[in-house]
């Protein structure tokens, strides 16, 4: 069974609510593609206006973060049920910026994956190596370990609904993209890891994205690879270029 392509924008900490609504309008006609799942993962404050702005379009709503409890005394946090109620479908978990800047470890990331599923959200689980690990040649073991820890206790049926984003940290926001062969090598290895942890059917179903300076110029070559089912896009998601990636 062919996997459906998924192109998701990670807006990060960009776009005020009014800018967000403008961006949705700018991209509206550019991101139409019946064969692709298109997702905008937006800052928390933009969720409500963007949910309204994408109504009736082919775009699904995603969020960038949440806390693992459902409600209570957690000043400043939002919960998975809150996201779900606001119309969010996808949630980015384990992004390298959250791991590195906010100290999120694989124990918390695993809790987040399980909580997201329990709340009816589909995780986009990010993994990837630093430049040092790439140079040391130990990136394969590192990524396998991330995935094994992050999916502890997650069922095969859940993994079939999961999206995994391979994001080499050295390629994020740097303008340096992994070559299509480098990206395919790791995405294939991730699929084999899922086959080892679960079974072939689960590995065939899970969707794997590449992320890291994907743009209108390099998307087609990356997306042509057999184990790359889509992209997680930062910088280029804020520009009309995003439409070219959706239609690459
Ligand atoms: C990201 O942060 O998920 C990302 C891929 O960013 P960029 O496309 O800007 O490298």
Structural class: alpha/beta
Task: Give the strand content.
Answer: 15-25%
The number of distinct β-strands equals 8
Question: How would you sum up the major sheet?
Answer: 8 strands, parallel, barrel
Bound molecules: phosphoenolpyruvate
Total helices: the number is 12
Cα(first) to Cα(last) distance is 21 Å
> Which parts are unreliable, with pLDDT below 50 for 5 consecutive residues or more?
none
Q: What is the mean predicted local confidence, pLDDT? A: 97
Please estimate the helix content: 40-55%
Element-level helix/strand string: EHEHEHEHHEHHHEHHEHEH
Strand order of the largest sheet: 1-2-3-4-5-6-7-8
Roughly how many Å is the radius of gyration?
Answer: 17 Å
Q: How would the global form be characterised? A: globular
Question: What are the SSEs and their pairings?
Answer:
Elements: E1 5-10, H1 17-27, E2 36-42, H2 47-53, E3 59-63, H3 80-85, E4 90-93, H4 96-101, H5 106-118, E5 122-127, H6 131-136, H7 139-150, H8 156-160, E6 163-166, H9 180-197, H10 200-205, E7 207-211, H11 219-223, E8 230-233, H12 241-246
Parallel strand pairs: 1-2, 1-8, 2-3, 3-4, 4-5, 5-6, 6-7, 7-8
The structure holds phosphoenolpyruvate.
Phosphoenolpyruvate binds next to strand 8.
Can you give a write-up of this model?
This protein is of the alpha/beta class and 248 residues long. Helix content is 41%, strand content 17%. The protein is built from 12 helices and 8 strands. It has an 8-stranded parallel β-barrel, surrounded by 4 helices. Strand 7, helix 11 (219-223) and strand 8 form a beta-alpha-beta unit. Helix 7 packs across helix 9. The longest helix is centred in the C-terminal third of the chain and has 18 residues, at 180-197. The radius of gyration is 17 Å and the shape is globular. The protein starts with a strand and ends with a helix. The mean pLDDT is 97. Bound molecules: phosphoenolpyruvate. Phosphoenolpyruvate binds at residues 10, 167, 172-173, 211-214, 232-236. Residues 10, 167, 172-173, 211-214, 232-236 line the site of phosphoenolpyruvate (PEP).
């Amino acid at each position: 069974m062919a996997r459906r392509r998924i192109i998701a924008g990670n807006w990060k900490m960009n776009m005020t609510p009014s800018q967000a609504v403008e961006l949705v309008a700018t991209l509206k006609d550019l991101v139409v593609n019946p064969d692709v799942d298109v997702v905008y993962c937006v800052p928390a404050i933009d969720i409500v206006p963007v949910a309204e702005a994408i109504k009736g379009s082919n775009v699904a709503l995603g969020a960038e973060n949440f806390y693992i409890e459902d409600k209570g005394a957690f000043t400043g946090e939002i919960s998975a049920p809150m996201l779900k109620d606001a119309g969010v479908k996808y949630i980015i978990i384990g992004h390298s910026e959250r791991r590195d800047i906010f100290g999120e470890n694989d124990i918390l990331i695993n809790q987040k994956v399980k909580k997201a599923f329990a709340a009816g959200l589909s995780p986009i689980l990010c993994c990837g190596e630093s430049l040092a690990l790439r140079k040391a040649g130990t990136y394969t073991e590192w990524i396998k370990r991330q995935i094994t820890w992050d999916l502890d206790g997650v069922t095969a049926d859940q993994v079939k609904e999961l999206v995994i984003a391979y994001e080499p940290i050295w390629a994020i926001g740097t303008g340096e993209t992994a070559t299509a062969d480098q990206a395919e090598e790791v995405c294939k290895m991730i699929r084999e890891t899922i086959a080892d942890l679960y079974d072939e059917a689960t590995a065939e179903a899970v969707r794997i994205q590449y992320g890291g300076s994907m743009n209108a110029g390099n998307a087609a070559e990356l997306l042509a690879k057999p184990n790359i089912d889509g992209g997680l896009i930062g910088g280029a998601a804020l520009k009309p270029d995003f439409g070219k990636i959706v239609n690459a």
